[in-house]
């Protein structure tokens, strides 16, 4: 049994127009966006409100810094670039300001799990490039594992 068959979903529809390059570009865009959100979250003083304790504020900043670091490292792994492409958008600033960790983390875990299944299914149905697919799955799993550490 192959490592990839654990994640294969024969009922899942995959985009025939997807290519390795388009999947990498989508991941790079997502990671760059998440990096910007986390960086915005670190710059807002008392982001949790006036009633937050100093311990809660410190934990919030630590999570945001750790998550930003994870997204930066993941972006660099996917793109082979030296730095993250910076995004400036008012929506990203607002998202960073209103970030609720428990909600965000649950949604992000779900996204990563679904993305692994999508990439593996795409490989089986369209690409058959198992080597690249294993690399992509490992990158997504690394992101999940590193963020799990950052969220503690």
The number of distinct helices, counting runs of at least 4 residues, comes to 5
What percent of residues are in strands?
under 5%
Give the integer mean of the pLDDT values: 93
- Anisotropy-based shape: elongated
Cα end-to-end separation: 34 Å
Question: Helix- and strand-based class?
Answer: mainly alpha
Low-confidence stretches: none
Query: What is the number of domains?
Result: 1
User: Percent of residues in helical segments?
Assistant: 55-70%
Question: In total, how many beta strands?
Answer: 0
- Characterize the main sheet: none
Radius of gyration from the alpha-carbon trace, in angstroms: 17 Å
Helices and strands, in N-to-C order? HHHHH
Written account of the structure:
This protein has 152 residues and is mainly α. The chain has one domain (17-150). It contains five helices and no strands. The protein has helices at 20-43, 54-79, 90-97, 101-127, 130-150. Helix 2 runs antiparallel to helix 5 and helix 4 packs antiparallel against helix 5. It is elongated and about 55 Å long. The two termini are 34 Å apart. The model has no long low-confidence stretch (mean pLDDT 93).
